[in-house]
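BUG: 3D viewer hangs when loading the predicted structure for this chain

Environment: internal workstation, default settings.
Expected: structure renders.
Actual: progress bar stalls at 90%.

Input used:
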Amino acid sequence: MAKDYLDSGIMQGASCLMFYNIMLCILNTPKPGNDMKHSKTPRIRQLEALVSVISNGSMTSAAADMGISQPAISRLLSDLAKDFDFQLFNKRDGQLVPSQEVRLLEPDIRRVIELMQQIAGASSEITKRKAGHIRIACLPGFATSHLPSVVAEFLCERPGISMTIEPDRPERILEWMVTEQYDFGITDGFFGHPAVDRTDINVRTVCIFPKDHDLERLEHVRPQDLRKERIIHTRKDSVFFQELERCFREDQTELLSYIEVRQFTAACELVCHGAGVSVVSELDAAKYVDLGLDFRPFHPKLPHVISLVRPSHKMPSLIALEFMEDFITSLDPYLI
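Structure tokens produced before the viewer hung:
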């Protein structure tokens, strides 16, 4: 941040070089030029002591202002004078008056102190999880169903946090994780990648059907109960469909494929319009109960596996980890 500030072009003229040299000292970088005899670098506390004496006119008042002893502030200024290699103050009428060299540097020193205070404040906000930005990649269904409510509640309690939410297909989400473009992703059908860490979450699945359907009389629905039903299902190349087809096969029942969709939310919409029945995650089904859909538990248990994925070699921020924890907690009512 400090280096970006130096390169921003805000500082102009002769004082810019002085400001640049002071910041290099703060960043523990040698001053440019051939004179390298001073190996020590000024510390921010020394600069604060210098400004305090300038403002108060005496070391006694400055020490009280900074909450330290007078010998302590005297040592800070003595060491700083050695680093700068010039006199810091002249005494006039009982007051400490800054030397011409200090007067020349004073505006830039004050800017350095202000910048470091801003950095300290920003880092404190980040540590308290009150500032930052989270980049999330997710399946399109999550971007329009469960995720918005979790995000809204999370941000309501943290006004300094902002987010980017990018919905796309699983292949694209994996690519973003490998190239470290997002903090984490929400996907399914993830088979693993050496550059990606994951946490799998097993969500219950249910059979969904239009309200007043004959399936309402059942406590749970098995494949045999669906032998005459037109099935709306996910893509045939998806892991979930292959597991669903296995359940039908083991129950010696033919799966009557009718409509193939990419997302559970699309299946829910179609069922609400009476196009057929489906087996989806309860997480999605619950959003459509007031829109003409009903559901029952599906047996045998067929989990829908949601994977939270993130780059292996990129440590997530504290605020990103906190949001991931909140998201997982929000799924508790639907877990197997």
